[in-house]
Design goal:
Blueprint lengths: L1 H13 L2 H7 L10 E5 L5 H10 L3 E5 L3 H9 L3 E2 L3 H5 L4 E4 L4 H9 L15 E4 L5 H12 L14 E4 L2 E2 L1 H7 L2 E6 L2 H12 L2 E8 L3 H29 L4 H8 L7 H4 L23 H17 L5 H18 L7 H4 L8
Parallel strand pairs: 1-2, 1-4, 2-3, 4-5, 5-6, 8-9
Antiparallel strand pairs: 7-8
Helix pairs in contact: 3-8, 6-7, 10-13, 13-14
Length: 342
């Protein structure tokens, strides 16, 4: 028996990573087997697909009917409202564009919380990028609900705020980084679930800290993209090619994600939005929204944040000029008038 088991483990170890993950679905906990997923945009659809591949019983909802059809055509259960998703789920994950969308999905008509009536899911995970204040408001509303079926010692449901970093490629590959706030016990219980969508899961602390970490991360990302773009344009104006500057940045103190992984200059790097006319990726409208969240949070605590304000103004202007659907790295071309690398 031991020899057979060893051979089975050896065979499993030789399988491709994606197949190994699917094969491990038997380890899914019974109180997390049924997962509802709401918000099937560029990120959410890929996250949901990874859970489906891992063997979870997934039900989905989105207001985009064409996306819903893609899932129903694959035999995935689709529901007409968030409340219908909650009625059959142990865990519900939301991935939505803005705080108003999140509030509506949780507390609006036909929302997840069912007007304060007892709910079936014991755990709600919001992976949207929203402000900590909204996160804590929703978490409080969830904690005031009761469970239809008591889960172990739980009598009330809990919430984790778990926004992500890594973009569409990482969502596709299942290599996202999750920044998680909420009860630590719930975080530990959900780590296995997170592992099928990401490779890094970082516990940040109490409710709202995951959301806070994400807006800080995106603030730094926006400022670094502006700095790198400005430097590239200056270099071009002084007779240095972007390719040369990229080699210098990436082997010196200017090295950052915006230069070595997500270079904004068309013609320098393959497989990034700048190589496809800034299509796909992280839309400038979403970056402007996140910078508004960072600015509002800074204002609330009286923090002087001049770079946040400047970055917010630049990306807002970019959107006002019609570039909102383009990846935020288009700031190199559309704001700084940078030149493509020939």
């Amino acid at each position: 028996m031991a020899i057979c088991r060893a051979r089975s483990l050896l065979t499993l170890a030789k399988l491709p990573h994606s197949i190994r993950r699917i094969s491990s679905s038997s380890t899914i906990s019974s109180h997390m087997e049924k997962v509802g997923f709401i918000g099937l945009g560029n990120m959410g659809s890929r996250m949901a697909n990874n859970l489906i591949k891992a063997g979870y019983n997934v039900a989905v909802h989105d207001i985009n009917l064409s996306v819903i059809k893609m899932f129903s055509d694959k035999g995935i259960s689709v529901k007409g409202s968030p409340m219908e998703v909650a009625e059959i789920s142990d865990v519900v994950i939301t991935m939505l564009p803005s705080p108003s969308h999140v509030l509506n999905v949780y507390t609006g008509p036909n929302g997840l919380l069912n007007s304060g009536n007892p709910v079936k899911p014991w755990l709600f995970i919001d992976s949207s990028t929203i402000d900590p204040q909204t996160t804590r408001k929703i978490s409080s509303a969830i904690s005031n609900c009761t469970l239809i079926d008591k889960k172990d010692h739980r009598v009330t449901p809990v919430m984790l705020d778990a926004p992500v970093s890594g973009g569409v490629p990482a969502a596709e590959a299942g290599t996202l980084t999750f920044m998680v706030g909420g009860p630590e016990e719930a975080y530990k219980a959900a780590k296995h679930l997170f592992s099928y969508m990401g490779k890094n899961t970082i516990y940040c602390g109490s409710s709202g800290t995951g959301s806070a970490a994400k807006i800080c991360n995106n603030l730094a990302m926006a400022v670094s993209m502006l700095g790198v773009s400005e430097a590239f344009v200056l270099g071009q104006s002084l007779g240095i090619t972007a390719t040369t500057l990229t080699k210098i940045f990436n082997s010196s103190s200017a090295r950052c994600w915006s230069s070595d992984t997500y270079n904004p200059v068309p013609g320098v790097m393959d497989g990034v939005p700048s190589s496809r006319n800034y299509d796909g990726g992280f839309a400038s409208t979403l970056m402007a929204k996140d910078l508004n969240l960072a600015s509002a949070s800074a204002k609330e605590i009286g923090l002087n944040s001049p770079l946040t304000s400047e970055a917010k103004d630049i990306f807002t202007k970019l959107c006002d000029e019609g570039h909102g659907k383009k990846d935020f790295s288009c700031v190199f071309r559309e704001f700084y008038s940078g030149k493509d690398e020939l």
